[in-house]
Amino acid sequence: LLQTVPKESSFVLSMNPADLAKKAGKGQSKKDASGAEIQKISSLLSGKSGIDPRRLVVFAYEGKMWATFAVDDEDDLKTSLEMNEASDVQGFKVLESGGLRVLVADGQGWLVEGNNTDYFAEKCKMFASLDEEGSVTALPQFSKNMQGSDINGFVNMPVVWPQVMQEMLLRASAGPIDSPEFKILGGSYCFLATNFEKNDIRLTARLVDKDGNNVIGKLNPGKLDADILRYFDKNTSMVFAMSAPRHMLDIFGRLMGE
Length: 258
Description:
Layout: E1 11-15, H1 17-23, H2 35-46, E2 56-61, E3 64-70, H3 74-80, E4 84-89, E5 92-97, E6 100-105, E7 108-113, H4 117-128, H5 142-145, E8 151-156, H6 157-171, H7 180-186, E9 189-196, E10 201-208, H8 216-219, H9 246-255
Antiparallel strand pairs: 1-2, 1-8, 2-3, 3-7, 4-5, 5-6, 6-7, 8-9, 9-10
């Protein structure tokens, strides 16, 4: 599936929904879901839905969110997702329900939101025909870092960072916002590995340059002062803390209008 994701995608998620459901106690408890919902979830994760529940890839490309998966049985897929068969477009069977479209061909399906079916078919045709150089798998360290965890994620910083910088320029109150750290981030690829254990959730990040070298150490943020935690009481639901060099704090302050 990852071979059919273009390397210009801004981010990618790869997961095994069936394994995640087992870790979560099959998704939902009976208190949280109706009988119909439980049956539908069970069908999707049991392999009786026409979809292989062990493989799911989600990616963002040209401003649209896509999900792609292996299709075992098109009729079961249509039934399980409660979709109508609309038409055949450019060799793809198109299923629709409201604003959602599923395009299926050669044992693979793509889910996307919107009504522009002809455009979606053109994109799916391009996805399916990607060569090795055009696929996201050609990017440094991609194949190595997108396996082995419950959820593997990828952020394509050379694609994402120009948009981030544009937004920061609009927000900055005064002075330059460039820094050595920003240059490192803008030329790197970020990999995120999420694992769900019995008592905790662990997220590990890795940042590599175009040659595949780990560059997190070059950011050198310094040691986090844990004393900052005393400003949060026991009712705080979540805390995210990070350390940063002084010049970065100055930039963040201008971005906040301080």
